[in-house]
Specification:
By secondary structure, this protein is mainly alpha-helical. It has a single domain, classed as MetI-like (MetI-like fold, Orthogonal Bundle), CATH 1.10.3720. Helix content is about 70%, strand content about 0%. The chain is built from 12 helices and no strands. The two termini are about 45 Å apart.
Amino acid sequence: MKKKKSDFRPNSLWTLPSAGLLLFLTVIPLIMLLVFSFMNRNLFAGQPWPGWTLKNITRMFHSAPYWKLMAKSLGIASIVTLICIAAAYPASWAIAKIVKPKNRSMFMMIVILPFFTSQLLLIYSMMNLIKTGGVLLTAMDAIGIHGMTTWLYTNKATVLILVYEYLPYMILCLYSSLEGIGDNIIQASLILGASKTKTFTNIVFPMSLPGLLSGILLVFVPVAGSFMEPGLVGGAGGSMVGSMIDTQYSTSLNMGYGAALSCALLIILSVIMALVRYFAARAERAIGGEPS
């Protein structure tokens, strides 16, 4: 009987650094988060070794403020994601199909320019634009539009700044998909009598769906867990679920309860993204595309 050859290849050793990073930066922290949610003391506050409890879980389920903030966070994340999609499709299409190829890299550089600076500086720069006496309201007064009030310290300011921060992610994801759509496919659709709207719904949208799903993932998930932006520009009533989780770690020093809240948020976001992917695949099949 012939001995079966091993499937091991030396080239597979190159995957070890990536696998190690995935293990130590993703898998292990998630396991630690789950373990911490059953602890009854803070492990890093100089207290005795914690015991195990279900109180963090039961407290979370009975916490009306948490679920209220969860609903608010998911609503704001949905609004920000929809605004980013509406703004990113035309911008991505213009860069991918209208701008000359030699100039596309310049426009993409402009899109990613905000990534070259601190996120905190981006927030403060937007605050200076929309505050009372800021650049925007001063310019409105100068052109004769008076009576405009600042959005600062409202939920509108939170949405505005989150769109400002995460719109480049959506543009990058959609651009990568739209650029791969052949011009001959679009021209063939138009020549055969399809309107621009039908061409978009039957050709462009299905073929750009992988980029759209990636963009939704990169925008919806971090926005739902945001805590710095609501704290700086949302005002007294601007807290989101991320703010409550941050308070448990930084102020209350209740690591177990904070971990339980974080696990619940991760599970809810995972379910939502799975549903988005499922319905997107069904929509793609319904309009004649191959599910991505």
